[in-house]
Amino acid sequence: MKIICVGRNYAEHARELGNEVAEEPVLFMKPDSAVMQRNNPFVIPTFSNDIHYECELLLKIGRHGKCIEEEFAYRYISEIGLGIDFTARDVQQELKAKALPWEKAKAFDGSAYIGDFKAVTGISNLGELKFELHKNDAIVQSGNTANMVHSIPKLIAYISQYFSLKIGDIIFTGTPSGVGPVRPGDELKGFLEGQSMFRVRVR
User: Fold this and answer.
1) How far is Cα 120 from Cα 80, in angstroms, rounded to an integer?
2) pTM to 2 decimals?
3) Domain 3-201, what fold?
4) What is the pLDDT of residues 118-128, one digit of tens each?
């Protein structure tokens, strides 16, 4: 299982961090060691003083594919879910300033929280899915897949040009605006179309 992440896929989020909206999807990856254990708290790593939450819609791949055409992309999704791409923003800024890869800021142990999934069967509005992140019961992020810079079919087609997609692979599709820091004692809750998908505490 591999985790493929998409950066800057919501225009407002790109602008809030002072980034340009990319013409092509920005891709990076997380190792399986980045996946948080379910029901465990997120522990802020000692090497960062500015860890941010980034709530994202997740796609779970249900069949093998390579060089997938956009019109057939939805056939390769078995489930959708919600998760958090935890980011060491201070480390990322240092790496970006030196034009270095982001892995230390994005792929550290525990940086990928994967919440619940639901089958795509019967879901007809994958292009208009609403999701929210609540921090301490206040809404901090509100996204809609209709506002993606690069749509779900385009992402699958683009990614599969470079990486063969295999059963169980997970795609983090990008985060909307509203990202921010976490502190010990915070509680994060994710909702997809009003349904609770995860709850995680920060320590």
Assistant:
1) 6
2) 0.95
3) Fumarylacetoacetate hydrolase; domain 2 (3.90.850)
4) 999 877 788 99
